[in-house]
Amino acid sequence: MIAIKNILVLNNFEEPQKCKKSDILIENNIITKICDAGQLKTPEGAIVIDGTKKAIMPGLINTHSHIPMTIFRGVADDLPLMDWLGNHIWPLEAKLDEEIIYAGTMLGCMEMIKTGTVAFNDMYFFTDSIIKAVETANMRCTLSYGLIDLCNEEKRQTEVKAQKDVLNSLEKAHNKNGLINAAVGPHAPYTCSADLLQHAHELAKEHNIPMNIHMNETEDEIRQIKEKTGLRPFEFLNSLGVFDDINVVAAHCVHLSDNEINILKEKNIYVSHNPLSNLKLGSGIAPIPTYLKDNINVTLGTDGCASNNNLNLFESIKACATVHKGVQQDSTVVKVSEVLNMATKNASKALNYNSGEIKEGMWADLVILDLKNPTLIPNKNIISHLAYSFNGVVETVIINGKIVLENGKMTTMDEDKVYEKAEEAYLNLVN
Ligand SMILES: C[C@H]1O[C@@H](n2cnc3c(O)ncnc32)[C@H](O)[C@@H]1O
Ligand SMILES: [Zn+2]
């Protein structure tokens, strides 16, 4: 049990004036009580956190990452997507092994936790190593294996077999404490055959799990699909039935026609907006204000550390809250509450979680901020600061009712060892 006393609860992004100091009780992995400050009787044996001069917010949820790619930080800067992937990232990924993946995932979990992220939706390879690291870190996640067949029948068969093993591992991991969840991850329309996309869709439906896919990131890939199929990517996948009856998290969604935006609406597709990756790779800027007007579900992601180059979701929040104002020359678009909801409750809905808000009965996935932080002062407008000024350095993080970061220190891992292993992994990757 954890009792948090006299803390400012940031549970209403729309009406910041209604946020007040309260006491919170966590039992097992659930928030069981929220009451006025001073009203909670501390249960015997509870860990007590004094929340004076602190605030608590829902933990952030990153809906698009490639967590082991922390090891790729800085390896291929200032290149466009296809050159970056084909000539730099994929050749290096051919050298990956279980140790590199484990080291990269440990570093990624540490970075996310220290910057207030409690859960992430990931697509990568070597899923067993990722599971091992995430279990050590005690993070919540939805993991998918990146399916790529480049329209080659032999490769498709290997991918289908690998996918089966991955789902078995993920099911076992999920059964331990529910922290690890499965998704299917066809990489993108330009790397997957129609058969592979349909196979992934069938699996998602059969297992009642989401699909995680890169969509319409660049004009170049859209041209490729149009040449091959006569249709734009969303139209092509829709014609295959790939969006039917499942939750789809579509990363990027930078360049969409009006008809494709209608497909987003009709099929209730969740957009994972990755503004910093799109800016760095020169891909473009997604029309988020249009999506918001159309009531499309928008969430936020970082993408991997070779295109961002960090996993601090507060940076993506600020980018999202500012870049669209500049592009549209309209400072009223993408409001603070909208962008904070993207990183919390919208993401929770996309991934079928019970978090993203601070309410009785919800999972205890929470982040405590020390208000004695220069980027949060004056302490008056904290919710505005979360979007525009906060540097992301959080004090305490609770995931599934367990304290994983305490006064800025990881409780689940030896930080120096993680840094050392990540340096070693980098050398093994590039040499
Ligand atoms: C899982 C595979 O996805 C690759 N990847 C990482 N970031 C991106 C991106 O922005 N667009 C397309 N593909 C991406 C990663 O390197 C793996 O190969
Ligand atoms: Zn990506």
TrEMBL record:
Organism field: Methanococcus voltae
Additional notes on this entry: SAH is a product of SAM methyltransferases and is known to be a feedback inhibitor of these enzymes. As a result of this inhibition, organisms have evolved efficient enzymes to metabolize SAH via different pathways. The pathway found in methanogens differs from the canonical pathway, it uses the deamination of S-adenosyl-L-homocysteine to form S-inosyl-L-homocysteine for the regeneration of SAM from S-adenosyl-L-homocysteine. 5'-deoxyadenosine is a radical SAM enzyme reaction product which strongly inhibits radical SAM enzymes.
Residues binding Zn(2+): H64, H66, H214, D303
Top-level division of the source organism's lineage: Archaea
Essential cofactor(s): Zn(2+)
Lineage: Archaea, Methanobacteriati, Methanobacteriota, Methanomada group, Methanococci
CDD domains the record matches: ATZ_TRZ_like
Binding positions (substrate): E93, H187, E217, D303
Pathway(s): Amino-acid biosynthesis; S-adenosyl-L-methionine biosynthesis
Enzyme Commission number(s) from the entry: 3.5.4.41, 3.5.4.31, 3.5.4.4, 3.5.4.28
GO biological process, one term: S-adenosylmethionine biosynthetic process
Free-text comment on the cofactor: Binds 1 zinc ion per subunit.
Function: Catalyzes the deamination of three SAM-derived enzymatic products, namely 5'-deoxyadenosine, S-adenosyl-L-homocysteine, and 5'-methylthioadenosine, to produce the inosine analogs. Can also deaminate adenosine. The preferred substrate for this enzyme is 5'-deoxyadenosine, but all these substrates are efficiently deaminated. Likely functions in a S-adenosyl-L-methionine (SAM) recycling pathway from S-adenosyl-L-homocysteine (SAH) produced from SAM-dependent methylation reactions.
Name of the protein in question: 5'-deoxyadenosine deaminase
Quaternary structure and interacting proteins, as annotated: Homotetramer.
